[in-house]
């Protein structure tokens, strides 16, 4: 029969181990993310575990969330972590960044409880804009210092004021052991409107000394670019690496959102879009690949020109990504940014994970923005109503890649012209940044592959709205014994789940595929994400 495309997998070209942390998550005090999404309260009629929505926990467990970032986002830079500790009825209400009064019922201890219930690690975003460095290092101490005995009736010296003792008195004797810390958030925008040089100075000051506990070496993450703003990264690295003494830096954050409109940020409709808008969104979403390689190059040259040491050891933490649409599909007005999610967003999820996996040597952590009731969510919840989005299924389908060795795979397929390729493209991660040249075409088939022992995982996105892609899949130096898998495909890419139809979009199983002559031939349906488990002979 006719073959439309080829995938040539080469196990002899390993890229790197895929960090399980690239499938991480982000939740912020914004709209209905925390209040109602995550936190319903211990006395709620909604099923909960110590106040945390049970459906949220179960769903996060189902995708084996490795790391959860909190409390923002922009919210973090006007948040005082002390407001969210201690007896809940004594906590102050405060104006939050997103024009919402925050009751502070959900704070550090509730967040840590959430992480424990999910079985994931915490990632805290520290406030750099409105608090001094002291609050940062004291938050680290509060989280990580071991608690001494708090004597009740002995003569031993008590240190009730020690931050660890306060933590114990607030219910958590065991240290939280938080190793991943974001030093500010979007400091080029809501986090302070700083220049890269100004931020570098702040970063050095905040990180010059932090309390250290031997079990928890800190992984400090610097604020990186807004989308493809290479100027930020080059100047930041020159400023940081110009002084080799001052590099307490583990990761560089990247925020890259794909707007639903090519010309305006956070625009377009989550549910109503035409074919041209569909292809255009996926084309601009695919620029995540360029964002990663551009910044890798920028980091490398800034480091080698100042220190002559070649590639940096710093890896990327893509801690905000997703498709961001305009208003119109929110659950209710107070659920700010709780946009709907369709098959289009599931395809973008697959494309994005494949990019991270192909760049397993560069991306250490990535967090989708955000888990529930927000931009590129896996879940929608309102009161006792709950559903997962198509994106949830893609997270599940990509599980076999975690911790596997990413290996090079060549995809050969006719590319799809972007019908809006002449329109100026808003490539920035946020509205602050200028325009980049329009992007003319989208890969006809894209994906990635990884291997663990004799088990090979291949994930593939066919973004074509109508064309099935019959593809010959070959593994160099090996013969395929068999394959099976899962596919998420819909005839109508507007398909989505809602409270009344929670299973409208769900994956189906691909029964065992048999190779011929050691190669597989498989047809990827239009508008589909496929995950294949290939067994080699
Ligand atoms: O995820 C929503 C917002 O997008 C975050 O608060 C901010 O960091 C980004 O601009």
CATH-wise, what's the superfamily of the largest domain? Glycosidases
Q: What proportion strand? A: 25-35%
Can you list the ligands bound to this structure?
Answer: alpha-L-arabinofuranose
Radius of gyration computed on alpha carbons: 23 Å
Topology of this protein?
Blueprint: E1 5-17, E2 24-26, E3 48-49, E4 52-53, H1 54-62, E5 67-70, E6 94-96, E7 100-102, H2 108-118, E8 121-126, H3 133-144, H4 163-169, E9 180-183, H5 196-207, E10 219-222, H6 230-241, E11 251-259, H7 275-285, H8 288-307, E12 315-324, H9 343-358, E13 363-369, E14 379-382, E15 385-388, H10 390-397, E16 405-412, E17 416-417, E18 441-442, E19 446-452, E20 455-462, E21 469-475, E22 480-489, E23 508-513, E24 520-524, E25 528-536
Parallel strand pairs: 1-21, 2-5, 2-13, 5-8, 8-9, 9-10, 10-11, 11-12, 12-13
Antiparallel strand pairs: 1-16, 3-4, 6-7, 14-15, 16-19, 17-18, 19-20, 20-25, 21-24, 22-23, 22-25
Helix pairs in contact: 3-4, 5-6, 6-8, 7-9, 9-10
This protein binds alpha-L-arabinofuranose.
The site of alpha-L-arabinofuranose has 11 residues, from loops.
Explain the overall architecture.
- With 537 residues, the chain is of the alpha/beta class.
- It has 2 domains: 19-401, TIM Barrel (Alpha-Beta Barrel), CATH 3.20.20; 411-536, Sandwich (Immunoglobulin-like).
- It is built from 10 helices and 25 strands.
- It has a 9-stranded mixed beta sheet with strand order 23-22-25-20-19-16-1-21-24, with helices on one face. An 8-stranded parallel beta barrel has the order 2-5-8-9-10-11-12-13, surrounded by 5 helices.
- Helix 3 crosses helix 4 and helix 7 runs parallel beside helix 9 (343-358).
- Residues 28, 72-74, 185-186, 320, 369-370, 375, 430 line the site of alpha-L-arabinofuranose.
């Amino acid at each position: 029969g006719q073959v439309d495309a080829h995938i040539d997998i080469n196990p002899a070209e390993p890229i790197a181990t895929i960090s399980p942390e690239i499938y991480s998550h982000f939740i912020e005090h914004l709209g209905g993310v925390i209040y109602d999404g995550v936190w319903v309260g211990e006395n709620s009629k909604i099923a909960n575990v110590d106040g945390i929505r049970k459906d949220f926990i179960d769903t996060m467990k189902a995708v084996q969330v490795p790391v959860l970032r909190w409390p923002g986002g922009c919210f973090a830079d006007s948040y005082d972590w002390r407001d969210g500790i201690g007896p809940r009825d004594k906590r102050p209400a405060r104006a939050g960044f997103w024009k919402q009064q925050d009751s502070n019922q959900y704070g550090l201890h509730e967040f840590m409880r959430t992480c424990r219930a999910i079985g994931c690690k915490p990632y805290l975003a520290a406030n750099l804009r409105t608090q001094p460095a002291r609050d940062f290092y004291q938050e680290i101490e509060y989280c990580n210092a071991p608690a001494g005995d708090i004597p009740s009736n002995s003569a031993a010296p008590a240190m009730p004021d020690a931050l660890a003792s306060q933590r114990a008195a607030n219910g958590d004797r065991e240290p939280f052991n938080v190793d991943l810390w974001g030093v500010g958030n979007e400091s080029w925008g809501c986090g302070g409107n700083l220049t890269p040089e100004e931020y570098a100075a702040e970063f050095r000051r905040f990180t010059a000394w932090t309390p250290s506990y031997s079990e928890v070496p800190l992984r400090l993450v610097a604020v990186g670019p807004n989308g493809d703003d290479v100027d930020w990264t080059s100047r930041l690295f020159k400023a940081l690496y110009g002084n080799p003494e001052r590099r307490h830096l583990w990761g560089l954050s990247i925020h890259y959102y794909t707007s639903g409109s090519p010309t305006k940020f956070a625009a377009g409709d989550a549910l109503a879009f035409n074919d041209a808008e569909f292809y255009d969104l996926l084309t601009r979403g695919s620029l995540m690949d360029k964002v990663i390689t551009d910044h890798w190059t920028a980091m490398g040259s800034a480091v080698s020109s100042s220190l002559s040491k070649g590639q940096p050891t710093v890896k990327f933490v893509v801690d905000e990504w997703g498709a961001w649409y305009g208003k119109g599909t929110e659950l209710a007005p107070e659920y700010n940014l709780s946009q709907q999610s369709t098959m289009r967003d599931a395809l973008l999820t697959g494309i994005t994970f494949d990019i991270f996996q192909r760049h397993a040597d560069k991306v250490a952590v990535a967090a989708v923005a955000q888990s529930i009731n927000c931009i590129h969510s896996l879940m929608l919840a309102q009161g006792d109503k709950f559903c997962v989005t198509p994106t949830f299924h893609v997270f599940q389908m990509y599980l076999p890649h975690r911790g596997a060795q990413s290996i090079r795979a060549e995809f050969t397929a006719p590319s799809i012209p972007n019908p809006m390729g002449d329109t100026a493209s808003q490539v920035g991660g946020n509205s602050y940044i200028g325009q980049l040249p329009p992007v003319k075409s989208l890969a006809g088939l894209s994906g990635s592959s990884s291997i663990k022992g004799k088990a090979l995982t291949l994930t593939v996105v066919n973004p074509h709205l109508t064309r099935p892609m019959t593809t010959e899949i070959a593994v160099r130096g090996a013969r395929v014994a068999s394959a099976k898998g899962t596919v998420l495909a819909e005839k109508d890419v507007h398909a989505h789940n809602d409270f009344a139809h929670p299973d409208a979009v769900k994956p189906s199983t691909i029964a065992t595929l048999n190779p011929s002559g050691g190669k597989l031939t498989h047809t990827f349906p239009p508008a589909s994400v496929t995950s294949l488990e290939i067994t080699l002979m």
